[in-house]
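ok so I'm stuck.
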Amino acid sequence: MKHFVRTLLGCALAAVVSGCLTSHGLLQTAHTEPPRELRFNAGAAGVINENASAAGRDFTTNTTSEPSLRLGLTEHVDAGVAPWLVTGAILDAKLNLLDNSDRAALAPRMAAGYAFGDRSAFGLEVGVIGSYRLEDGLEPYAGLHFANHWFEARNHVAPSTLKANQQLAEVRGYGDGLVKAAFGLDFHVSHGLHLLLEYAHWFPANNDPGDGYRFVANDIVALSASYHLSGR
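replied:
not stuck anymore, here's the structure
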């Protein structure tokens, strides 16, 4: 078991060092970190969609790193930070509506992210996480969120390439949205160490035709090693 855990940790840390940094996984339960206590996640996520399939990529070649940090702010609130869209960062916070010592937890969550450069974009995400601690150190969790994105890059099609009866779509301003459903398991492996295994599906929602970007459905499998600096 110890060798298995070390192997998983090594894979997660290698992904953080060598992979594309972003945030595809939810990778958290509804329970919050205790005040002033820190948790570090190092993981990886495999993403598959119709664009990847058309390009001949699969989970093994379409993988991103999933590093993150979480800090407990109060008895019921924690906040986290993670890379987002390669060149940016996303901040999130959640509020556990129940007593944090209870087995059950229910937490509304909100996040905001910004990416710079060619991937310049702003994003907002709102949703809820529910989880339940079982007696054997296992905590199943599920999350449902709506995430909206406003891309600053516009259509790059040169007007000279358009036919006489064609024109570029105008930016509507409502952005591009996703409904994100995630289901995961948090395993308490040893003193301070947790492993999280997660599956998520992203459903395309609204699409602004003028920003030159369109989401497709995504299937995501994520694995993360989580270490609580407090030793929980």
